[in-house]
Write a structure and sequence with these properties.
It is a single chain. The protein is α/β, with parallel strands linked by helices and about 725 residues long. The longest helix is centred in the N-terminal third of the chain and has 18 residues, at about 165-185. It is globular and about 80 Å long. It starts with a helix and ends with a helix. The protein binds one DNA strand of 16 nucleotides through helix 7.
Length: about 725
DNA sequence: GACCTGCTGCGGCGTG
């Protein structure tokens, strides 16, 4: 029987009404799997590839075909990372279900309480919900979970790749485990994704205890042709009005993108505003209607929706200068070209961004990468001479072309999210045993890297009288403590990630700008802002103001601000690019020259055949050839041995003036596995939402499991000396 | 050396 014939009559009718002559390949394949088995499934295809239909046409057919007794509960559950995405998908599903008695129920923070309470009384149809709202259901309506979800035939997770990493993904996995435990049976899981670097990781995410049973449907041959250019620019070093590179890039964008829809990723909100402003005035000077608009999270919802609607409107040419706000799958239609100014932080993001272009049959995807490098003088620093930004841009493009992208670090403890889930389960059940928590979270759930000892240490910490997140009842049951009760009561509890407050940074009565602050700050500590170190004089928490003065030689923070995390593979690729001679064809004349330049400096410094280079005045450069995690670990170790350390992509620079140890001796010691304490006193380890409740010991464990890699030290050090 | 994501319950008031 063909895939089409397996679908329910009303679904077939809808397909015909759309004028489709047949199902797309991925839709036919997933229909066969969904209607022919009860297996989990991942559907990977580009944004316009029809993934939603691939999952829901057969799932709706299955629901309509099931005429057994009427049970209570939603038939299908869709989980999406964005409210806007849920709104888009609600419309699409409503359209499919126009002539069918299957309610579509969007459920997130902007949905009115009346719709929610109606759905809660008589749950049926398709629920579309965010992880946070699902979390809220577990906490507020713990006892009704079986009533709400007992009937669920499948959970569809949209944009699966956004959940693979970090806090929110761990939270969702934990919720899925808890859902299955609450209704005492597994529920089929279906993941939809555009960007997947490693399909096996996605399988493990979707069904950790049986990844090999997860079926996959991957769109084939649909990859559009890619047109690619990397243009090089030399900065005049003028930070203010007229940096030559900014002016030139804006002009190039104006001349080449005008008249069509495009996305310009500028890296930070400040740069988004800067480029949007330049492009706006270029339009004005030419007496042309406005078509370049900024888009980032600080702009009002109205403005953002206006830009999104304009992008969707084929009649109005529109280019959005944006941050990662326009990276995910909200519906803005196809764009002609994606521009990236400066290197992106991950290949995964670059891939996701590029996926916005070239989605129409026969149209190429177009990537315009702009690299800005400084003008060199006789005193130029080794890291500037090596043109690390340009080299990283090339490395990331090369890895993109190979289809590689970053994978999350396995075995991270995720203690902040663990604290959250402990409180959530206690709230859901009104109290529970330590044993049950351990089984739910660590044995069955996503915290498999947390052993019984660490788990107990966390429980004991949360139960301390000065922490008071949990307490033990007379029967040994764990209950919420005084502070825990307060935390869980407030609606801000549901999200597992931190939202930093924006503080105004003020020096001598002059505002330097605003800074999102997620770490704990205090007077006398230093912070990094607009490329400089500042000592904190005073913090006004109520008015969100930080008074600062320029720091002399204050201790630099353990991890500078919101440090990017560059993968080992990216740095390896950078090394290959330094060591080769060929010039990639997609480089323009300036970029080619800069690359030749960088390679010459690389050889002149001697990095071609050694990894330790004396720079003079007790300064030494080390070529580590590894990513941020290992680089930071080594930097901390050497700092503990008295060196001053600066980090760059794949390199560090040491200043040994204040220590008697030589670089060689220090490395020999590390190679011998004599590791100093990586954590200096008073070092800040608070980055995630529930970190403030953990002990220093637990925070160090957490950091070692995700941000640092102490085990790599001896090998790294011995490679350097040999 | 950066960006992004999310949020309940209830009191008070007006209207039909």
């Amino acid at each position: 029987m063909s895939a089409f014939d397996q679908l329910a009559r009303p679904v077939q009718k809808w397909i015909r009404s759309r004028g489709w002559s047949e199902l797309r390949d991925i839709q036919a394949r997933s229909t066969n799997i969904i209607l022919g088995s009860d297996k989990d499934l991942i559907v990977a295809a580009s944004t316009a590839g029809g993934k939603t239909e691939a999952a829901f046409l057969p799932l709706i057919s299955q629901v309509l075909g099931d005429e057994t007794e009427v049970r209570s509960g939603f038939d299908l559950v869709y989980i999406g990372p964005l409210k806007a995405l849920i709104n888009d998908q609600t419309k699409r599903l409503e359209d499919i279900c126009t002539d069918v008695d299957l309610p579509i129920v969007p459920w997130h923070g902007d949905i009115s309480a009346s719709i929610k309470s109606r759905a809660e009384k008589r749950p049926r149809g398709i629920l579309l919900i965010t992880p946070e709202s699902l979390e809220a259901l577990f906490i507020r309506k713990g006892a009704s979970i079986p009533h709400l979800f007992g009937n669920a035939k499948a959970v569809v997770i949209d944009e699966l790749h956004t959940f693979l990493d970090a806090e929110r993904g761990v939270q969702l996995r934990s919720l899925l485990t808890r859902l299955e435990l609450a209704i005492s049976r597994p529920v089929r899981r279906i993941g939809l994704s555009a960007t997947l670097g490693d399909i096996n990781l996605a399988r493990t995410y979707l069904r950790p205890d049986a990844p090999n049973d997860v079926e996959t449907v991957i769109a084939e041959g649909g990859e559009a042709e890619l047109l690619l250019q990397l243009r090089g620019y030399i900065s005049s070093g003028d930070d203010n009005e007229g940096d030559a590179a900014t002016t030139e890039i804006a002009k190039h964008l104006f001349e080449n993108l005008r008249g069509s829809d495009n996305l310009i990723f500028a890296g930070s909100r400040g740069r988004v505003e800067e480029f949007a402003d330049r492009l706006r005035s270029l339009c004005e000077q030419a007496h042309l209607p406005q078509e370049f608009y900024p888009h980032h999270a600080s702009l009002s919802k109205d403005h953002r929706e206006f830009v999104e609607a304009r992008l969707k409107d084929d009649a109005l040419p529109t280019s959005a200068v944006c941050t990662s706000t326009l990276e995910l799958g909200i519906d803005i239609g196809d764009v002609k070209c994606v521009a990236q100014i400066g290197p992106p932080f991950t290949v995964a993001a670059l891939r996701q961004r590029l996926g916005r272009s070239g989605r129409r049959e026969g149209e190429p995807a177009i990537l315009r990468q702009y690299a800005i490098e400084g003008r060199l003088d006789a005193n130029a620093h080794f890291s500037d001479r090596l043109r690390l930004g340009l080299i990283r841009s090339i490395a990331m493009i090369e890895l993109l072309l190979k289809g590689w992208c970053e994978a999350p670090r396995p075995n991270a403890l995720q203690l902040s999210t663990l604290v959250h889930q402990i409180l959530s389960i206690i709230a859901e059940r009104g109290g529970t045993s330590a044993k049950r928590l351990y089984v739910t979270l660590c044995e069955r759930g996503p915290f498999s890297a947390v052993g019984p000892e660490t788990f107990l240490a966390v429980l004991r910490q949360l139960g301390r009288s000065d922490i008071a997140l949990i307490e033990q009842g007379e029967d040994g049951f764990l209950l919420l403590g005084r502070v825990g009760e307060k935390l869980v009561e407030h609606y801000s509890f549901y999200a597992v990630f931190n939202t930093p407050d924006e503080y105004r940074i003020v020096h001598d009565g002059r505002e330097l700008g605003t800074l999102p602050v997620s770490q704990v700050l205090a007077p006398k500590l230093t912070l990094i802002f607009s490329g400089r170190r500042w000592e904190i004089l005073e913090i006004d928490d109520r008015d969100k103001v930080i008074l600062v003065k320029p720091a002399r030689a204050g201790k630099p923070p353990l991890f500078g601000g919101d440090a990017g995390n560059i993968d080992d593979r990216v740095i390896e690729k950078m090394r290959e690019i330094f060591e080769q001679d060929d010039i990639p064809r997609y480089l323009d004349a300036v970029a080619s020259e800069l690359l030749v330049d960088a390679r010459t400096s690389f050889r002149n410094f001697g990095f071609a055949n050694k990894r330790i280079v004396e720079l003079g005045e007790s300064r030494t450069a080390l070529a580590l050839w590894c990513g941020s995690v290992k680089t930071t670990t080594l930097a901390l170790a050497l700092r503990a041995m008295g060196f001053k350390v600066e980090q760059y992509d794949g390199f560090i620079e040491l200043d040994g003036r204040e220590t008697d140890t030589t670089v060689a001796a220090a490395l020999a010691q590390l190679a011998d596995d004599v590791s100093p304490n990586l954590f200096p006193e008073n070092s800040n380890l608070i980055f995630e939402k529930f970190h403030p409740y953990l002990s220093t010991e637990l925070l160090q464990l957490d950091a070692l499991s995700s941000r640092l890699d102490a085990k790599s030290l001896p090998e790294l050090a011995s490679n350097l000396v040999s």
